């Protein structure tokens, strides 16, 4: 019986930790200042949050069903494949639309320069524009 | 290593599909093995045109080591980012960094970009068309040199040893 109490504690720990991380990741969406920084919340904290919840789920169902349940590993696999790709596409879109970033951001990527090929025509003062 | 044949263009993908199918079905019944096997043969045949040539894994032991290292780093990065978000006296120093790529193949660059997005407070934002550099956005950077060296030594060099060499 003692073993099950211990296991319950472990499962609860993972569930609570997972929920906390997922919450902090979402909190980042409101607390962080610009689009590029907000991207970090969902790619990182949420990954760990869902990972913790899945570990809890593996323990719980493996115990109650008496045989190892490993389907959750598939969710992790899909998550690790899709999360970086969607983050990359969002970042790329942000760069393409030249979304603003906070002033203290260092580094000036060419994608955000105004004279890059884009919607606005390139001005050349020496050619009478 | 299984050699690709006309009816089996991507052996690794086929094996992966079969394993994933059996894990989803949660049974090893002959019917599921048959169905999964058929899918594992048909799906690569329909889609292999869209795939880049996958480089050969030269060093499976190093690959395992790399995967474990990335998993560990994901946990550390998560804690770091979570702390940055909830820390009330946050003094984040976001930055765009130009990362010069050493890798050449598109497949390995994809893996590196995904790794960078999952780990140390960074998101890979854009791959330049010439495939020579990667634009990275980081949430909190102390020093550009340090970041580039870290990524180079921790992720890119092992990847190069695993795939390209």
TrEMBL record, chain A:
Membrane-spanning intervals of the chain: 6-32, 44-61, 73-91
Species per Swiss-Prot/TrEMBL record: Halomonas ventosae
InterPro entries: PhaG_MnhG_YufB (IPR005133)
Pfam families: PhaG_MnhG_YufB
Name of the protein this chain belongs to: Multisubunit potassium/proton antiporter PhaG subunit
Gene Ontology molecular function: sodium:proton antiporter activity
Alphabetical UniProt keywords: Membrane, Transmembrane, Transmembrane helix
Highest rank taxon of the organism: Bacteria
TrEMBL record, chain B:
Domain of life: Bacteria
GO cellular component terms, A-Z: plasma membrane
One function term, GO molecular function aspect: monoatomic cation transmembrane transporter activity
Keywords per UniProt: Cell membrane, Membrane, Transmembrane, Transmembrane helix
Subcellular location: Cell membrane
Main location: membrane
Residue ranges of the TM segments: 6-25, 32-51, 63-86
Alphabetized InterPro entries for the sequence: Cation_antiport_E
Annotated signal peptide: none
Membrane topology listed for this record: Multi-pass membrane protein
Similarity comment: Belongs to the CPA3 antiporters (TC 2.A.63) subunit E family.
Protein's recorded name: Multisubunit potassium/proton antiporter PhaE subunit
